[in-house]
Automatic annotation (TrEMBL):
This is dTDP-4-dehydrorhamnose 3,5-epimerase. Pathway: Carbohydrate biosynthesis; dTDP-L-rhamnose biosynthesis. It is an enzyme of class 5 (isomerase). Pfam families: dTDP_sugar_isom (PF00908). It comes from Escherichia coli. Catalyzes the epimerization of the C3' and C5'positions of dTDP-6-deoxy-D-xylo-4-hexulose, forming dTDP-6-deoxy-L-lyxo-4-hexulose. The active site is at residues 5, 74. The lineage of its organism: Bacteria, Pseudomonadati, Pseudomonadota, Gammaproteobacteria, Enterobacterales. SUPFAM superfamilies: RmlC-like cupins (SSF51182).
Length: 138
């Protein structure tokens, strides 16, 4: 499992597809001025279905691989910058994602991510500049 990741000052839109395997894919709205802030959408992506999920800028992204393996394809609106990465813990109680697993295999980085409440307190100075809700840190 990975996530829930986002970029702080250079938010990315991502078109996500799975070439082979099966993945439970999630996008969480982190736009403070949004009526759906903190809510998520999820979809089962698979190479057999050949379906996709668009994760807009201002959303966190996470996924859980359900098959033995999975190959992904991402088309991003901006470059990945590891120094700009932020994240929300996968099992945040305020978001309450209905993950299809209860004991996922997580990276050290993902285990240490913050909660949505901590995110709101830490980043309450976010400003939104245009209709695509790109956000910038003060």
């Amino acid at each position: 499992m990975r996530g829930l990741h986002f970029q702080k000052t250079k938010p990315q839109g991502k078109l996500v597809s799975v070439i082979s395997g099966e993945v439970y894919d999630v996008a969480v709205d982190l736009r403070h001025d949004s009526e759906t802030f903190g809510q998520y959408v999820s979809v089962l992506l698979s190479g057999k279905k050949n379906n996709q999920l668009y994760v807009p800028p201002g959303f966190a992204h996470g996924f859980c691989v359900l098959s033995e393996y999975a190959d992904f394809h991402y088309k991003c609106t901006d470059f990945y910058d590891p120094k700009d990465e932020g994240g929300i813990i996968w099992n945040d109680p305020d978001i309450a994602i209905d993950w299809p697993v209860t004991e996922p295999l997580l990276s050290e980085k993902d285990i240490k991510l913050i909660t949505l409440a901590e995110y709101k307190n830490l980043y309450e100075s976010i400003l939104y500049s245009d209709r695509w809700t790109w956000f910038h840190w003060q």
